[in-house]
Amino acid sequence: MARRKQNTGLREKALSAASGLSGLMGVFSSWTVCHNVCTAAIALLAIIGITVAGMPLLFLQSVAVPFWTAAVLIFAVLVALKLKGMGCLSGNALMLNGGLILFGMPLQSLQGFILLFRLAGSVLILAAVARYVSSRFRK
Questions:
Q1: Looking at residues 67-78, what average pLDDT do you find?
Q2: CA 120 to CA 15: how far, in whole Å?
Q3: What single string gives the DSSP state of each residue in the chain?
Q4: Quick one: pLDDT at residue 8?
Q5: How far apart are CA 28 and CA 8, in angstroms?
Q6: Among 14, 68, 84, 139, which is most exposed with the fewest C-beta within 10 angstroms?
Q7: Are 75 and 101 in contact (CB under 8 A)?
Q8: 86 phi/psi in degrees, rounded to 5
């Protein structure tokens, strides 16, 4: 009986981790997130009778650099707090956020290095997810 319960618990943890990983996979692409938000906005507007052709949230493209800059500044503050021992985020959360910031770098002057930024961001994201999943299986 105890062995069966142990196997059930392990299976539930594996399914839970797979479900979380599945949900996280949709976040990896900023285009997918933007596209889903735009599609949801178009659907919501259609429900109330407003027809929209095109991309209703395209105006956000013009504020991508200020939002990204704010994200970098907040990230720097959080890393500084973590280094001083006052951080409230885990190392995995910081690594994931750093990877997302690198992956979504919008600066036109650095677009020649976009593959490098995306590769570095992907490595950080995958490392954070792997560390999180492995820590969940160890418990």
A1: 88
A2: 29
A3: -HHHHHHHHHHHHHHHHHHHHHHHHTTS-HHHHHHHHHHHHHHHHHHTT----S-TTGGGGGGHHHHHHHHHHHHHHHHHHHHTT---S-HHHHHHHHHHHHHT---GGGGGGHHHHHHHHHHHHHHHHHHHHHHHHH-
A4: 64
A5: 31
A6: 139
A7: yes
A8: -110, 10
Amino acid at position 41, single letter = A
Instruction: Give residue for tokens 């995995």.
Output: 92
**In Å, what is the CA distance from 93 to each residue of 52, 72, 74, 132?**
37, 14, 13, 9
Report domain extents, the chain: 2-138
Residue 131 pLDDT: 92
In the predicted model, is pLDDT for residue 31 greater than 60? no
Check: CB of residue 78 under 8 Å from CB of residue 70: no
Contacts of residue 88, defined as CB under 8 A and 6 or more positions apart, other chains included, come to 81
